[in-house]
Amino acid sequence: MQNYILKDENSVFYECGYSCDNEIFLKIGDEAYFFTDARYTQDAKDHIKNAQVIESKDLLKSVREILRKNRAKKLFFDPKDFTTFEFEELKKSGIYLAPKPNFSWKKRAIKSEEEIALIKNSVKINNLAFDRYSSYLKNSGIGKSEKFLQYKAKEILSNFGEFDLSFEPIFAINENSAKPHAHPTSKILKEKDLVLFDAGIKYKRYCSDRTRTSFFTQNIDFNFGQKFKTKKIQKVYDLVLKAHDETIKRARSGMLAKDIDKIAREIIDKGGFGDFFIHSTGHGVGLDIHEMPFISPKSSIVIEENMVFTI
Amino acid sequence: MQNYILKDENSVFYECGYSCDNEIFLKIGDEAYFFTDARYTQDAKDHIKNAQVIESKDLLKSVREILRKNRAKKLFFDPKDFTTFEFEELKKSGIYLAPKPNFSWKKRAIKSEEEIALIKNSVKINNLAFDRYSSYLKNSGIGKSEKFLQYKAKEILSNFGEFDLSFEPIFAINENSAKPHAHPTSKILKEKDLVLFDAGIKYKRYCSDRTRTSFFTQNIDFNFGQKFKTKKIQKVYDLVLKAHDETIKRARSGMLAKDIDKIAREIIDKGGFGDFFIHSTGHGVGLDIHEMPFISPKSSIVIEENMVFTI
Known about the structure:
2 copies of one chain form a homodimer.
Chain A: E1 4-6, H1 9-16, E2 23-28, E3 31-36, H2 41-47, E4 52-55, H3 59-69, E5 74-77, H4 84-91, E6 96-99, H5 103-108, H6 113-140, H7 146-158, E7 170-173, E8 194-199, E9 202-203, E10 206-207, E11 210-215, H8 231-250, H9 257-270, E12 282-284, E13 291-295
Parallel strand pairs in A: 3-4, 5-6
Antiparallel strand pairs in A: 1-2, 2-3, 7-8, 8-11, 9-10, 12-13
């Protein structure tokens, strides 16, 4: 892929170690260009690697000028990365725009050792935050609303704004915990409630992501092997934990992502709860919180060494 | 405009009183449709006004089915609202897609009495939060970093997660306050620092937006008529305040937005600081924090009764 263009912040950061909220990255042969406006020029020049910073009031016009100067004939782009407006602006250059869906995600699916170290550190800091959050819940959780406890989770996870979060943390009580993307409500936390906590932080832009279901008592923690008050809930939890452990044990490079999904799905099916397994089994994690490889029934990507994904 | 399609959350909310992060709104003649996936169907049905909810695993495919069933020939869309991928998916229906830039913004520029009441309430709550934040700064601000004080601003403005924020609040000290979109740093707040605070909340989705520059002493507040330690800073502040007050006094419906911008710009020019006025004079506020009418040197929109904008 000789010439390509990117706009998505994480995709651009991956190419040149810098991004901002008004930018375009352009690669023409061996040359790389980063277009941005006057607010970010100095910051970009200070932090960018291997790309020339071009300041402009009209980024797409400046891109067209570089394309013409280089007499480029063909440019790859991701059709999910550009709006119809931007596409039309680029087309004015006369260049052939070749759609190539997800090419940045495909590039980023296999992580370098350095990236893996960053993700491990992100996971470590996130785990410590989960511990601090369970301490907070023990001491002060009862009587607080989901909304307040979600806010408190942001404070603890971000360490008062030191870390960005991978996504808005989800803290859900009892029946709300069955909705995978619940918004927090005014529901109040009581002793013996069931709680779902799904949260992650970013360390140097690399995401972590952890989900736990727990029984709220004075011993609450977010470790594996939770104990619940009814046999039915315990049965479902143990089944999900078994599917989780078995899938991790049996996943191998060389497998298709959907065959890894199948391991989990078969265990849940056999346990009698297949109809309730409405979510996919996992997803890649990196600069994006959800990225390739997706571990779902339709995902036919081949799993390779150094791919990082959740189960 | 008989038939149109929207995806942007605020534009969709304006049409039917509901939105979520996976949705399409389609208007065909007198019929309106809201497409979403199983996670949101029930919530959508509970809250939507005057639109039929259609649950789908592939929203664009379901849109095509409705387009075919209705034999629609032409559909308006905003080229900034749809990606190239989505455009190609819609085109498969055989319909003519007519680009109409910013049509939702144009529709929303003139506010109803109800919307104006919501914005006023948003401004009122935001002003109270500014007061609470200045109290916090007086009592505990010294020795804290920009990063921490930005985090604290989020806590106070959102009232621990009760309100969403219009945007990430900006808290900047001394030279950082000259950058209109500064990211918070580790810089520590000291007595007699110059501080910039730019923040707003959302009330029932309607935004407020307030910017103040103050001198940090034990009397800090964010009211007009600030006093500073040097004559030069005081001169600049008083000039900006004069431009602000005069522009509000002289702005009238029937004027072009750029002529309102010119009032402010001429006063700053005459005061000798025209070269430093790199920002526009103001912008519309509503469901979006920045929307039409834009009050800038190039904006030739005619100002009408019940438009709401900042100066």
